[in-house]
Design goal:
Elements: H1 10-22, E1 30-35, E2 41-45, H2 46-67, H3 72-91, H4 98-118
Antiparallel strand pairs: 1-2
C-alpha cells in the first residue's frame, strides 16, 4: 500500500529522459528482435520498448484505481506528471519525439482513468422484497 500515491508512469518518463539526455541514444535504434515464422524477425526499438513498459504500467494503474479509493493526491500527481510530459514535449526541442507524444497520451489516459473510476456513482441498493407470512386461520 506504499505505492498508492506514486504515479507509475513516472518510471517510463524518467527512463525516456535518461535515454535522451544521459545516454544520448536515438529512439529508433533496434534493441533486439523477436523471431517470427519463416525466418522473419520483428525488430523492437528503444521507443517501442519504452511504450510497451508504459502500457503495462497503465494497466497496473487502472487496476490500482479500481481497487483502492484514490485520494486527491493521486489525481494531483497524475496531473503534474501529465503537465510535465506535455511541457517537455512543447518546450524542449530534443524531446520532440513520437515516443514522448505517446507517453503524454498515456499520461492523459491515466488521468482520465483515475478520475472516471473515482467519480463513478455508488451502486444503488436494491430493496429486498419483504417476506409476507400468511395468516393461517
Amino acid at each position: 500500500m506504499y505505492l498508492i500515491a506514486f504515479p507509475l508512469l513516472l518510471i517510463p518518463f524518467a527512463l525516456y529522459n535518461m535515454v535522451l539526455f544521459l545516454l544520448s541514444l536515438p529512439f529508433t535504434d533496434t534493441l533486439f528482435s523477436i523471431p517470427l515464422i519463416e525466418g522473419r524477425r520483428l525488430p523492437v526499438t528503444t521507443g517501442e520498448l519504452l511504450l510497451a513498459i508504459a502500457i503495462l504500467l497503465i494497466y497496473v494503474e487502472a487496476i490500482k484505481a479500481s481497487r483502492v479509493r484514490k485520494a486527491i493526491t493521486d489525481h494531483v500527481l497524475s496531473f503534474i506528471l501529465f503537465a510535465a510530459m506535455v511541457a517537455e514535449l512543447v518546450l524542449v526541442p530534443q524531446a520532440t519525439t513520437p515516443t514522448l507524444l505517446l507517453l503524454a497520451v498515456l499520461g492523459f489516459a491515466d488521468l482520465l482513468i483515475g478520475l472516471s473510476v473515482t467519480v463513478r456513482p455508488k451502486p444503488q441498493e436494491l430493496p429486498l422484497e419483504e417476506s409476507y407470512q400468511h395468516d393461517r386461520y
